[in-house]
Amino acid sequence: MTDPIPDLSPLRRHFPALQETDEQGQTYVYFDGPGGTQVPQSVIDAMADYFVKANSNKGGPFITSRRNDKVLNQAHAAMADFLNAPSPKEIVFGANMTTLTYNLSRSIGKMLKPGDEVIVTRLDHDANVSPWLALEEQDITVKMVDFDVEDCRLDLEHLASLLTDQTKLVAVGYASNAVGTINPIRRIATMAHNVGAWLWVDAVHYAPHGPIDVQHLGCDFSAYKFFGPHVGALWGKFDLLEKLPAYQVRPANPNVPYKFETGTLNQEGIAGVTAAIDYLAEVGRQYGTPSTDQEAETDRRQELKQAMHAIAAYERQLFTHMIEQLQTIPGITIYGITEPDAFDERCPTVAFTHEGFTPAQIAAFLGERGIFVWDGNYYAINATERLGVEDSGGMVRVGLAHYNTQEEVNRLITALKAMG
Ligand SMILES: Cc1ncc(COP(=O)(O)O)c(C=O)c1O
Fold it and tell me: Lower Cβ count inside 10 Å, N or C end of the chain?
């Protein structure tokens, strides 16, 4: 028997941005989540609280500094629960995912030699491509895996053909921020490990939509832009983080994870990360179905899994409705997986074009009506080029989050139909 789909719409009351209205008193529709989701009040409170009670730097012999250190330790532990990381020491916070990836790609590059190979994909956000392409400067070969333009699934046969004994790292997205495809990470991890390569996973797009278990996935590193405040986070296997050289100033802490947390962190944002994870744990307590497995996990880890399963079920129902409705509008082409039976292979993020209007025209039309969507390539530039839409303005992207509702989807559809 499958669990009933929870109605998560009561959670909207926790998000002050969702109560904002235009001059006519109409609320805004936030379908721009893939670029960054809205935050609950508890995250805002935690960040404000940090400034009042803990605004200091690390390691001082006074109360605000000790509170600051506690904030940082709590966030490492919270993120470890979110990802099922074996230790909070495996979590590295940074400015954002792009900066963390550049930072670590430099360190990894120091371990490589000319002739070594790295594999990236055409489906990925450029933050998981350009940092690896930069290794070409040191004569590392960077190869690119293609995807099937019909359904935007990654071409695993092509990946298999690119893997060699020289492959040292495979960099792949957990899910595409353009067309929503969820990649089979476990399978890719096995393929990479079979030739002795590490697997780097960009999980930014997937993180708000489903449970993540880095141990089950079998990856070696994974990077996040955590939904909540604008903070980047990275998970890496402890022994690998220990082995990698870090670019750091001489007096800084040389131990993992601190050696990669360069300079003063966005500590108020990191206070917000813990609050965002605690918000999700509360969602799990309220809406989740306790699992019967006996895994040795913290209560919060169990609640987070429950939350993400509830969120995935709710979003899938909403997404199914949106795709069905979009398909009734003449002139629209949807990119990616559209068969409902395969929706567990995709996130609730859809990209489409319209034969009568450019993506920029559609986004502007919707924006004037308080509906926020992105157009263009959203930095997934290899994907838009491969789909042949880069020169015509890319695609319109609508990204659902668990705080969106069917009524909002209907507002989108009505507006699109009104465009003609
Ligand atoms: C899939 C994906 N990867 C990476 C990034 C880059 O993240 P950041 O802005 O934290 O550098 C984004 C940004 O939206 C993204 O969607």
Answer: N
* Token pair recorded at residue 122: 């055409």
Q: How buried is residue 418: exposed, middle or buried, by Cβ count under 10 Å (0-12/13-18/19+)? A: exposed
In ligand 1, which atom is closest to the CA atom of 175?
1
Which pLDDT score is estimated for 401? 97
Q: Quote the DSSP letter at residue 213.
A: -
* CATH class belonging to 45-277: alpha beta
pLDDT score recorded for residue 368: 97
Q: What pLDDT, in 10s, does the model give residues 31-79? A: 999 999 999 999 999 999 999 999 999 999 999 999 999 999 999 999 9
Q: How far is the CA of 127 from the centre of ligand 1 (A)?
A: 6
Residues 6 or more apart whose Cβ sits within 8 Å of residue 180: 152, 205, 336, 337, 346, 347, 348, 349, 350, 351
Handedness of CA 316, 318, 319, 324 (dihedral sign): positive
Domain at 9-40+300-419: CATH code:
3.90.1150.10
Atom of ligand 1 nearest to the CA of 100: 11
- Output the pLDDT for position 2: 65
pTM over 0.85: yes
- pLDDT at position 154 over 90: yes
Contact 419, 362 (CB under 8 A): yes
Cα 113–chain centre separation: 31
Ligand 1 pocket residue status of 204, Cβ below 6 Å: yes
Distance in Å, CA 343 to ligand 1 centroid: 22
* Angstrom distance (rounded) from CA 222 to CA 351: 25
Three-state secondary-structure class, residue 283: helix
pLDDT at 382: 98
Structure tokens at 343: 């929706």
Extents of the domains making up the chain: 9-40+300-419, 45-277
Buried b / exposed e over 115-151, threshold 16 CB at 10 Å, is: ebbbbbbbbbbbbbbbbbeebeeeebebbbbbbeeeb
